[in-house]
Amino acid sequence: MSNRLEALRVFCAAADAANFRDAAARLSVSPQVVTRAVRELEDELGEPLFHRSTRGVQLTDFGRQLSERARIALSGVDELFHRTDRRALSQHLGTVRVTAPGIFGRQLIPQALAPMLAAHPGLVLDLRVSESHADVVGEQIDIGVRVGPLRDARFVARPVGRMALHVVAAPSLIARTGVPKKIEALASLPLTALIDRKSGRPWPMMFRKERQLAVTSPAFVTDDFDTECAAVLAGLGFAQLIGSLAEPWIERGALVSVLEAEAPEPWPIYVYRSQRAPVPARVRLVYDELIRVLR
Predict the structure, then answer these.
(1) Does domain 4-82 have CATH number 3.30.450.40?
(2) Which of 24, 50, 73, 277 has the fewest CB atoms found within 10 Å of its own CB?
(3) Would you say 11 and 49 are in contact if contact means Cβ atoms under 8 Å apart?
(4) Taking the model in full, what pTM does it have?
């Protein structure tokens, strides 16, 4: 073990334990790591640190003296890096820029993070509401929330939930068109379209077995989830809406879900950040809290 400081920590843990296996369990390492650290210290110091027997290990006189001195040294190092409450607060000063889709950004995130922000004066939340998958590096975003697949290896991502997709329409529209029985039938019905801001094209409707339906001749077009939902409620077309928007209206009878047997797997919801290191304490604080409140 090339790190002398870490070797001393392992040695002190071994000195407090009945045997190396117990020390390893306390440190969450393998017994071989403890054995190797002790052996390297013994080789470097030229003295045995433990008497070994089938019943366990006991410190030698030299080992006992070393453990006392090592604890003092380690305590000094820990004190050097110890984060007092005042230091911890100062580390959380500054701005954390978060991007999230409107379903989370408009109400949920500000309300959920309010207690944390109140507890950390000087911590500023810069919340950018966007339906696009932000470039955390190029746009200087610290944290993002995304609904849907996330396959970019540049990010550290934590799943926090899943969201269903529903094809829905207003009862008044269904009274005129009837209930579509097949996916293909949607193509001849009025549809709304949600624009992908990056490509400028409508998002396709997604179905199980990775089937898709392109929205080629929409009756209504928007780039905003809530606006599309309002159009569907007004009877302008069928649409595929995310669960958090559609389900309250389905429960009230204001929207009717169709083609439920063809629904795709629920989409994952992720909280993600860049892999770049080190991660500022204020970013880590907000990242961990977002994961907690969105689960």
Answers:
(1) no
(2) 277
(3) yes
(4) 0.61
